[in-house]
């Protein structure tokens, strides 16, 4: 008598996906954002007929490079359970100061490091207020936002035009294989490099693991002997450096600096990060998800421009998506708690 062994069927793609998501619950919002982005692409292409073209898709990165840089820094802060409302004002302040220094004849090799250091200093100040003076992140970053905006007005009350070729080159240069094909600018390359560095820091360094541990449970992280204070300070410094770098990129994008630049940008940044799957309570999220969130934001803005509608609809749509993703996050957190 021969004994027949049961034939094991190969798992289907759906079964593999379900198994992956059951083991990696934190990726569910990221995949949800990807699904929404793809649906927007397909819907816009079906409605307009000329949306998925190299020019339009390449412009998504070109137009939102500064926001992508801000989103990377904000991801680090939100993962710790904090918030940084100062990034838009810091971007404006560093842009104003940089444009002023360039107008006065300082070389770009000095101006850009000064902008980055100022951004880092603002981020460090917020971190110190939170860690050593026990100020809530919302209040500390709000104070920094007002301070940075005031400093921007102290530099100049009017717009400062930038004529430095090295700065303008960052946005005006298009790298493409042939005319009419996909293109990228140096500002887009900078934004993608920031995403890459941020993703590697979070995934493969002790600093990144500590960030997640703090956001998951700060008290447990302290009991494990992790450098909580130093890590949270560094998270805000990274956010400040990203704001300073965004000041460089945004100045190149507009060709000028203005004290009112970046008003509301901090809210756009937070919305993009949350839509990308980062929990507002901290401990769960990815830089890649934040990049998807920025692309969703840019696609909504571009689609509304195609329609010729008022840009206030961008805010309405982003608000609706933000509410949806907050609800999704609450469901995920409650299910994880029950498990």
From TrEMBL:
<feature type="transmembrane region" description="Helical">
    <location>
        <begin position="27"/>
        <end position="48"/>
    </location>
</feature>
<feature type="transmembrane region" description="Helical">
    <location>
        <begin position="68"/>
        <end position="93"/>
    </location>
</feature>
<feature type="transmembrane region" description="Helical">
    <location>
        <begin position="105"/>
        <end position="132"/>
    </location>
</feature>
<dbReference type="InterPro" id="IPR001851">
    <property type="entry name" value="ABC_transp_permease"/>
</dbReference>
<keyword id="KW-0812">Transmembrane</keyword>
<keyword id="KW-1003">Cell membrane</keyword>
<feature type="transmembrane region" description="Helical">
    <location>
        <begin position="138"/>
        <end position="160"/>
    </location>
</feature>
<feature type="transmembrane region" description="Helical">
    <location>
        <begin position="270"/>
        <end position="300"/>
    </location>
</feature>
<dbReference type="Pfam" id="PF02653">
    <property type="entry name" value="BPD_transp_2"/>
</dbReference>
<feature type="transmembrane region" description="Helical">
    <location>
        <begin position="312"/>
        <end position="333"/>
    </location>
</feature>
<protein>
    <submittedName>
        <fullName>Ribose/xylose/arabinose/galactoside ABC-type transport system permease subunit</fullName>
    </submittedName>
</protein>
<keyword id="KW-1133">Transmembrane helix</keyword>
<keyword id="KW-0472">Membrane</keyword>
<feature type="transmembrane region" description="Helical">
    <location>
        <begin position="181"/>
        <end position="204"/>
    </location>
</feature>
<feature type="transmembrane region" description="Helical">
    <location>
        <begin position="233"/>
        <end position="258"/>
    </location>
</feature>
